[in-house]
Amino acid sequence: MIDGCGRTIDYLRLSVTELCNLRCVYCMPPEGICKRRHAEICSLEELEELAAACVELGVRKLRLTGGEPLVRKGILTLVERLAALPGLEELTMTTNGTLLPELAAPLRAAGLDRLNVSLDTLDPARYRALTRGGELDRVLAGLAAAEAAGFSDLRLNAVLLRGVNEGELGALARLAREHPWSVRFIERMPIGPAAGLGFLPASRVLEAVPELREQEAERGERGGGVARLYAAPGWAGTVGLITPMSCDFCGACSRIRITADGKLKLCLHSPEEIPLRGLRGAALRETVLAAVRRKPARHRLESAPSQSKRIMYEIGG
Ligand code: SAM
Ligand code: SF4
User: Fold this and answer.
1) d(CA 67, CA 84)
2) Residue 5 counted as domain residue
3) Cα 282 to middle of ligand 2, angstroms
4) Is residue 85 packed enough to be buried (19+ CB in 10 Å), middle (13-18) or exposed (0-12)?
5) Confidence (pTM)
6) Is 219 a domain residue?
7) Looking at the 3D structure of the chain, how many domains does it have?
8) Can you say how many angstroms the Cα of residue 231 is from the centroid of all Cα atoms in its chain?
C-alpha cells in the first residue's frame, strides 16, 4: 500500500484488548478505565480477518499490542493463526512482560517472532509506583523466560520521564552491555495522563552514557526504522533512541493501527477513526486502501497536544 505522500505502508499494529493487569501512570487515568462492553471488542476471528485483509494488501510486519495483549483470552490461538498468514514476514508483540514467565515458551511455539518488553525502571519501589502495583521481579523473570524460550532479539522499551527515571538512564542503557538486547528510550508523548508528566529529551541518554556511538541505520525494520541505534565497544546489545517529539519521524512512517474495537487509525495522534467491523472481503480491502491514501503527512506534537480521541491503552502505542 502506498499512501498519499508516497510512503509504503507495510506495518500494522493490532490492539487485541484494552484491558491490562497494570495501570501505568502515563497510560491510564488514576480513576481506572471505563471498560467497553464485551460485544464492542472484536472477537479473535474478527481480529484475524482484519489482519488477513491488511496482509493481503501488503502489510509485512504485524505487531500485537493493547492494553496488555497477554491478558487477552485465546491470545496463543490468535498468534498461531496470524503466524500462518501467507505473506506476513514478521509477527511481534509489545508486552509489559509480567505474564511472560508462563507464556514466553508457548508464544514462541505458536510462532511469535519477536518481543518488545516495556520496562521504565530497575527500582522495585519505583516500578510499583509507576505501574500502580506491578512487581518488577515478574518482568525480570519474564525476560529470562523469553531468552530461555529462544527470543534472542529482545527489545526493551523505556519511556523517558523527567523526575521519575532520569537518574536511571545509565543503568537501563547498560543492560545492553551485558545482554544482547536493544534497550530503547522513547520520548514521552503528550497524550492522556502523560501530557501532565515531565518531558525528557532522548539526548539525555547520550549524556548519561557518553561512550555510546551511533550505529548504521536499523536493520530488520521495514520502511525505515524509527530508532536511532547506538552501541559501545564490547557491548552485547544496542541502545535505541525514539524521538516522536522531534518530527523527523513522520516522513518514514510505514504504520497503520487497528484498535481492539475494530477502528482503523492512520496516525497515532489524529482524531480520525475508520470503522472496519462488519466489513469483509473486497469491501474491507477497499475501505482500508482508500483510507491509507488519506494518511496524515505528520503529527503536530511539537506545537499542540495529541488530537487522538483515545489514549494509549485504547490504541496500543
Ligand atoms: N501493555 C503493553 C506494554 O506496556 O508494553 C502494550 C501496550 S502499551 C500502551 C505500548 C507502549 O506504549 C509501551 O511501551 C508504553 O510504555 C508506551 N507508552 C504508553 N504511553 C506512552 C506515552 N505517553 N509516550 C510514549 N510511550 C508511551
Ligand atoms: Fe498497561 Fe502497557 Fe498501558 Fe502500562 S503501558 S498501563 S502495561 S497498557
Assistant:
1) 24
2) no
3) 35
4) middle
5) 0.95
6) yes
7) 1
8) 22
